[in-house]
């Protein structure tokens, strides 16, 4: 018998870390870890001080409301309303134990075994894993060379079993920022066909475009179809405190509440209080973090010509990610462990973001650059440019 967990693959980041076992890195050539999109630095000192103060409040150590602290729900609703120029109310917000839990809760509320959810490829692997474990089919929507999904192509995949389309913008793993027109087309498709559009905006704060980047919340009755997801982890370096959010209509949140109460009872209180303090006090600091990420994005563009002359291609670049097509004969699944041993680089192969039946992932790598600065990016590209592996034939690289 295949269990729910046995129906899916091992966690990719944990699998990649095992490639480090037994490998040593000399002091003059340390490991460059671009495998995970998570800040490794702690929250800034003022936020840590606020968290320390929160520890002295007895309520921090107790169960809280299943859908999150009312003050945080209200603050996020206000922030979302201001960002998108459209009203969002606190009763449309649920706080979750991270954005992965937000996705899991929404899928559980919308789907049952045998249903379908459409995911553009390359997909975020944790989305695929949760669908697998729920007995829900992940229907792949290929995006092509520009990594932008097409609503008309998605239309051909919709069946009576389809419950939702899940998009991530700015995209993980591709880094691309979906055009507003693309998102509008997907919302219109979802409204027309009676399915939900889940829009994971984990990396919204690092979009290179001026806000607002879409106008979906200005669509009449948007909450009956659109389900935005959000994460405080990237914005305020709260990855270990697990604070995310769902924005949806009240009937869907009532179903989400059942899931959240059963799994975690309530989101972590300390993380919620940190997120609330961040929303109220860290706007300028977050703007500086965005500027730094945008500079790293620019550094990728600056150094790409060196790789382009060696057959590499930049498919997507934005938020925390660059998505690269490599020129080599072997699959990225084989090359990724070799990168650790021979170049001191830990990166995830495109095969971790694609269906096993899709060969495109064999030519791709995801580079998560959130934790390497401009100088580190230069070193990374020097090491990639120095690789002297057998090249693919022109047909294989097409």
Report the count of strand segments. 13
Strand fraction equals 15-25%
Instruction: Determine the N-to-C terminus distance.
Output: 41 Å
| Model regions low in confidence, pLDDT < 50 over at least 5 residues | none
CATH hierarchy class name of the largest domain: Alpha Beta
The CATH topology of the largest domain comes to Aspartate Aminotransferase, domain 2
CATH architecture label name of the largest domain: 3-Layer(aba) Sandwich
Q: What is the N-to-C succession of helices and strands? A: HEHHEHEHEHEHEEHEHHHEEHEEEH
What profile does the largest beta sheet have? 7 strands, mixed
Overall pLDDT metric: 95
Q: Determine Rg (CA atoms, Å).
A: 21 Å
Secondary-structure-based class equals: alpha/beta
Main-sheet strand order equals: 2-8-7-6-5-3-4
Shape: globular
Quick summary:
The chain is an alpha/beta fold and 398 residues long. It contains 13 helices and 13 strands.
Q: Would you mind describing this structure in some detail?
A:
- With 398 residues, the protein is α/β, with parallel strands linked by helices.
- It has 2 domains: 5-42 and 285-385, Aspartate Aminotransferase, domain 1, CATH 3.90.1150; 45-282, Aspartate Aminotransferase, domain 2 (3-Layer(aba) Sandwich).
- It has helices spanning 12-17, 45-55, 70-84, 99-110, 125-133, 151-155, 180-193, 233-236, 250-263, 269-281, 283-308, 332-343, 374-385; strands at residues 32-33, 93-96, 116-121, 137-142, 162-168, 196-200, 226-231, 244-247, 313-318, 321-325, 345-346, 348-349, 364-368.
- The strands form 3 sheets. A 7-stranded mixed β-sheet has the order 2-8-7-6-5-3-4, with helices on both faces. It has a 4-stranded antiparallel β-sheet with strand order 9-10-13-12. A two-stranded parallel sheet has the order 1-11.
- The model has no long low-confidence stretch (mean pLDDT 95).
């Amino acid at each position: 018998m295949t269990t729910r967990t046995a129906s899916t693959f091992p966690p990719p980041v944990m699998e990649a870390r095992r490639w480090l076992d037994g490998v040593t890195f000399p002091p003059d050539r340390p490991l460059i870890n671009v495998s995970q999109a998570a800040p490794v630095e702690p929250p800034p000192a003022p936020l840590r001080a606020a968290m320390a103060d929160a520890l002295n409040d007895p309520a921090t150590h107790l169960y809280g409301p299943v859908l999150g602290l009312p003050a945080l729900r209200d603050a996020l609703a206000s922030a979302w309303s201001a960002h998108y120029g459209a009203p969002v109310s606190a009763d449309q917000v649920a706080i979750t134990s991270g954005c992965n839990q937000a996705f899991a809760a929404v899928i559980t509320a919308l789907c049952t075994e045998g249903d379908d959810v459409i995911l553009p490829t390359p997909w975020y692997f944790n989305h695929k894993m949760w669908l697998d474990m729920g007995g829900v089919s992940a229907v792949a929507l290929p995006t092509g060379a520009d990594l932008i999904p097409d609503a008309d192509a998605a239309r051909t995949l919709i069946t009576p079993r389809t419950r939702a389309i899940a998009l991530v913008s700015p995209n993980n793993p591709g880094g691309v920022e979906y055009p507003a027109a693309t998102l509008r087309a997907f919302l219109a498709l979802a409204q027309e066909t009676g399915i939900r559009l889940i829009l994971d905006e984990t990396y919204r704060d690092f979009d290179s475009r001026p806000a607002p980047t879409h106008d979906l919340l200005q669509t009449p009755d948007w909450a009956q179809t659109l389900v935005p997801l959000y994460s405080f982890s990237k914005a305020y370096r709260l990855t270990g405190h697990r604070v995310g959010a769902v924005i949806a209509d009240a009937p869907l949140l009532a179903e989400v509440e059942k899931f959240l109460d059963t799994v975690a009872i309530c989101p972590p209180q300390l993380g919620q209080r940190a997120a609330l303090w961040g929303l109220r006090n860290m706007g300028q600091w977050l703007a500086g973090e965005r500027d730094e990420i945008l500079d790293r994005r620019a550094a990728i563009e600056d150094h790409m010509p060196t790789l382009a002359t060696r057959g590499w291609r930049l498919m997507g670049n934005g938020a925390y990610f660059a998505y690269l097509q490599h020129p080599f004969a072997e699959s990225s699944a084989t090359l990724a462990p070799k990168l650790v041993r021979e170049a001191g680089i830990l990166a995830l192969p495109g095969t971790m973001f694609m269906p096993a039946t899709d060969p495109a992932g064999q030519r791709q790598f995801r580079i998560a650059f959130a934790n390497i600065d401009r100088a580190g990016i230069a070193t990374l590209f020097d090491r990639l440019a120095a690789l002297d592996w057998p090249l693919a034939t022109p047909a294989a690289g097409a």
